[in-house]
Amino acid sequence: MASIHHSADNAPPRPLLQVRDLEVAFRVEHGLARAVDGVSFDLAAGEVLGIVGESGSGKSVTALSILRLIPDPPGKISKGQILLDDLDLLSLTYDQMRQIRGNEIAMIFQEPMTALNPVFSIGMQVREAVLTHAKISKAEATDRAVGMLEKVGIPSARRRLHDYPHQFSGGMRQRVMIAMALVCHPRILIADEPTTALDVTTQSQILDLMLELKHHESDASIILITHDLGVVAETCDRAVVMYGGKIQEVGTVQQIFADAKHPYTEGLLASLPAMAGPRDEQLYTIPGNVPSIMDMPSGCRFCTRCEHVTDRCRQEEPALHEIGDGQFVRCHLLEPGSKPDSG
Asked: What's the predicted TM-score (pTM) here?
């Protein structure tokens, strides 16, 4: 399959991270559930890449696979490569992978209250991230933890080192998670729904904070997992649209929002509320529901909900192909020489 990289007028820079033909399956009562099926993408140095899609599309499983955090059993990365520079993360031992986590690649998890350990103080948890990877004293690690907590906007950071997660608000806990992720200056930050369950004002502050801290590390990259296309428009350089465990479209944010090609991407965009529209106008919804990963269609994964479905869509799975300027799409109707044909 063609490499999906960030297009440019000159030769594209070497990707910082390359995911190739990734497959992840979970053993369930009735067999194997393939949650991620043949996913490939590149992440360039300094890039903010959004991975977007409905719940159950495979976004979070893809992110957890990069850090080898899929619980085994019941999950298993059954195929693929995840290359950080020339290093295949899937070939590393457990101890080698621990040196990558937090140091080279860090992750902000979806639920800060469950990701933070309720029986350890905030200071201990942030300091542990430093001591795991840096050969410095406990006092130096404490100073670094205080400095990072101050950077993410925790007031009276040194005093609050002794507090516990339940003594922080949801927004403050998310800031602590960002501090833990960035305290070792990783090259890649994976943020899995970092603004879920936060109010709109706090969401904006958290996103601005992530981007501000990234700008201090010019080569640092972010993978932002979200279902919110508005967040993608504000923060990302490129977007990967996933559905049914597969990539359906890839493009720059401008391509996705101004010239989306895949019917699923078009449906996601159409479901966004329009500020200029009538107040009583009903929002568009994509018909049907996301199919179970145990009962995916044999052809195109989106064929059961697509308004342009053809017989070929129901029988044959389309390939992901480039349609120009680094934009990729998985749709029979957009293949060279194809003709629209209602099913």
From this structure: 0.88
